[in-house]
Specification:
94 residues; mainly alpha; Helix Hairpins; 5 helices
Length: 94
């Protein structure tokens, strides 16, 4: 029974991937990374958590891409501002 529990991802993961706000996706991804960084999990559990993390990363990226498309659509409706990639140095020193 213990092996079965350790091989399955967190039960809220599937619901989280479908409906959670972006901030919750990021928070769960941070938890996944922390668990993996501890390095004390069995191989199968580590792989399961890693798979969850990849899914969360992809979901977060899709959400960011969707948000960018919405901004671009708003800008195309007559605003003159342009988007550009955020410079890491600008972001870190604000």
């Amino acid at each position: 029974m213990n092996d079965e529990m350790s091989a399955n991802p967190a039960p809220d993961s599937a619901a989280l991937e479908k409906d959670a706000p972006f901030e919750q996706v990021v928070a769960r991804l941070e938890q996944v990374v922390a668990q993996l960084e501890e390095g004390d999990l069995p191989l199968e559990r580590s792989l399961s958590i890693y798979e969850e993390g990849v899914g969360l990363y992809r979901l977060g990226t899709r959400r960011l891409d969707d948000a960018e498309e919405r901004v671009e659509a708003l800008l195309a409706d007559g605003l003159t501002a342009q988007t550009r990639p955020l410079d890491e140095k600008e972001h870190g020193t604000s």
